[in-house]
Amino acid sequence: MKSTQLQSPNCDEREAGTAVALIVIHAISLPPERFGGDGVERLFTNRLDPGAHPYYAGIHQLRVSAHYFIRRSGELIEFVAPEKRAWHAGVSTWRGRERCNDFSVGIELEGCDSLPFEPVQYAVLAGLLAGLCDRFPVEGVSGHSYIAPGRKTDPGPFFSWGRLRRELTALGRADLVARIEPAGAADDDDRAAMRWPFPVAARPG
Ligand SMILES: [Zn+2]
Asked: What fold does the segment set 4-158 form as a domain?
């Protein structure tokens, strides 16, 4: 699908023979809870100005990335080709396997723990997931909070896993619905936050 390419240096090669088995959904906004700026692009390309916002002083040295970023407008930016390893998950475990960066693709949505996501973000995400599942032997789709519980809260209480399932079905990809691991009813758009199992304390990212 159509994407803007903006290469991040924060990546390396996957170990030979390691397949992409997992897709990790994240949410991020920079500054936190502010949308539309260039902070995320700058963070992922090591160009964040520590003087531009007080929050940036503590994070500008981080060397992090995600493969994809979906803006509130639906714009899709690719920072790292999915064949390579991006640095998005940190200390993490999925199905007993540690270091999820090794075998996952990371997708960041522009968002935060306190506001709903945009409908177009779900539509773009569903299309991206479908394409990735066609290219790689993806077994599961999860959220950062589920593979790093207690350390990360994203994509947060307002991300609707039920809506993501519906978008996949609407795309004609009901075959992928079972790979979406977190629970969520089909009509949970307004109630996603009520089932939120994680303390909201960590920063988005
Ligand atoms: Zn994250």
From this structure: Lysozyme-like (3.40.80)
Residues taking part in catalysis: 108
Q: How far apart are CA 56 and CA 46, in angstroms?
A: 12
Report pLDDT digits (tens) over 148-177: 999 999 999 889 999 999 999 999 999 999
Distance from residue 52's CA to the centre of ligand 1 (Å): 22
For the full predicted model, state whether its pTM sits above 0.85: yes
41: CA distance to ligand 1 center in Å? 15
Query: Could you tell me the distance, in angstroms and rounded to a whole number, from the CA of residue 89 to the centre of ligand 1?
Result: 6
Run of H or E residues at 147:
helix 144-147
CA of 3 to the centre of ligand 1 (A): 21
What is the C-alpha to C-alpha distance for residues 71 and 173, in angstroms, rounded to an integer? Answer: 23
- Residues lining ion ligand 1 (Cβ < 5 A) are 26, 144, 154
Q: What is the pLDDT of residues 70-85, one digit of tens each?
A: 999 999 999 999 999 9
Evaluated on CA atoms 114, 115, 117, 119, the torsion sign reads: positive
What separation in Å is there between the alpha carbon of 170 and the centre of ligand 1?
Answer: 27
**Can you give the residue ranges of every domain in the chain?**
4-158
HSE-CB of 112 using CA atoms within 13 angstroms: 13
Per-residue pLDDT tens over the stretch 119-135:
999 999 999 999 999 99
Average pLDDT over residues 106-121: 94
Output the CA torsion sign for 37, 39, 45, 47: positive
